[in-house]
Amino acid sequence: xxxxxxxxxxCIAPLLAEAGGVRAAEAALDGxxxxxxxxADGKSMVIGTVAFTPNGDKSQFRINFDDRKxxxxxxxxxxxxxxxxxxxxxxxPYPYPSPQTASASDPSWLEHALLFFYKRPGDYGAKMxxxxxxxxxxxxxxxxxxxxxxxxxxxxxxxxxxxxxxxxGEHRYPIxxxxxxxxSLTIEPHR
Length: 191
Known about the structure:
Elements: H1 2-28, E1 31-39, E2 44-55, E3 58-65, E4 71-75, E5 78-84, E6 88-92, E7 101-102, H2 108-112, E8 115-119, E9 131-139, E10 142-150, E11 173-174, E12 182-189
Antiparallel strand pairs: 1-2, 1-12, 2-3, 3-7, 4-5, 5-6, 6-8, 8-9, 9-10, 10-11, 10-12
């Protein structure tokens, strides 16, 4: 009898884990969440919110940055919202149409709504070749994102396929731990 119970438990465990993962993914894509940057020295900063509205197997999203956390910079003939510190991290709006949708298996449009570049405080102009995208995965009622390097100059000309997010695997490069001020970004339940 004990043997059958163990076999049953072994068979049902993956199904329960998958159901828990589905619920976690659904929770990640529903309601108001905070957008939080995490620095290499363990500090965090809420820079805005993202509101998710479920729509079938995806969710519509709308981002609202907290302007009190940003300083306006005029760099290379453009205005940017930037967070100041040991580096200057500037948000770069994706310049092409986006459906503003995300799913747990494909958060790429959400990642593209959160593109940044960094520069050192003494550097002149925008450093578009110093782009950062946060690679998002579902986690604890939201998403966890690890910084990856991108070259934002690659989207100076419209991509051939505007129906899909541009910065995917072949356009992203790993960043060694500790190389960037904000090495991760999370999307967490709103406080």
